[in-house]
Amino acid sequence: MQNQKQFPCKIGDQNFTIELSTSSLDLINQEQRISFKLSLKLIITWVFYGDKIIGFKVENLEVEGTTEDMSKLKMSLGCLATFKGILKFYTFQQTIYLNQNNTTKVCQLISNRNYRIYACKCYKKCNRSIESIHEEINLILKLQGHKFIPMIYEVYESNSCVYLIMEHLYRNFDNDFTDEEIKIIVYNLLLSIKKLEKLLIAHKSISRSHIMFDEDNQLKLIGFSNAVIQKTTNHEFELDIFKVGTLMYKLYQLLCKISYKKNMQGDQDQFPEIPDFGSDLLKNLLENQSYYRFNMDAALQHRYFNSLSGDGIYKEIYSMNPKFKDKIEESQSYQTKNFNTLLSLTKQQQYFQVDMSTELQN
């Protein structure tokens, strides 16, 4: 089988070989084969001796192996199964974002293994079914490899929460954006929607709270809890386009301190004056898509975006300009300055026996 990995192990006093593929985890010896189908429903609890992994429990079996092999197995599994015991691997640092109804939270964690910083989306199981949470995570897995989707690494579960470990992300909506930065955000969002539409996926919840940035300042789209797959209707795609227009308007409202009110007659001409034909693009994005479907390719080629690159240069996903990056570099500098203190603190907290879900929920 292609991409199959093997690791020696023991169950009791019997020698086995773990065979790992993208679809199953098999425990094999000359007499028997024990198979587990890989999915987020499969729960694996790692067994430790001190701070070293020496095996795992799956269903009613306990499997032993060397620390090196078990660490490699865990890394190879990634998001193919759900792990228990997040506190053994990560330490909570701070909350990055908490949604209005307090059902999900994005936190910043530090790894107890490599001391790198990660983002973690925490889902409260009391507010959503485990099936719904798994559907969202599987959708994000399906989209891995697209530049606008965060990289995800592992999934953990406690009694009260599910935790999705992602690349370290930043939220930079505390300050007003420049005209160029707004163009980059709008362009990246339209390009993201186009790629989602090709996969028959509608996001349905595009907003400032669902936009983050990575260390290279590239836009990352999160918040797929309301996304619709395969059975998506034109109306749902139209909603995504409209929401990009709404976000564009709000960003310019912050930039220009403009105020727009639709009059009682529904006059569609009262749009803010945005440079570089931006007003025309905004009007098209906010147009009633039921009567007039704005062509996505036409939107991406709109004159409003001409200043982002020279003539004849194909536009890919853009990163923010150096001015914007300064905000991130300042944060990184702070983290570097405090690395040694953080490292020491992390080591002290590795065996602090509390349910991490308490930290992430409060």
Automatic annotation (TrEMBL):
SMART domains: S_TKc
Entry's Gene Ontology cellular component terms: cytoplasm; nucleus
Domain Protein kinase: 92-362
Designated name of the protein: Protein kinase domain-containing protein
Gene Ontology terms for molecular function: ATP binding; protein serine/threonine kinase activity
InterPro entries: Kinase-like_dom_sf, Prot_kinase_dom
GO biological process: mitotic DNA damage checkpoint signaling
Domain of life the protein comes from: Eukaryota
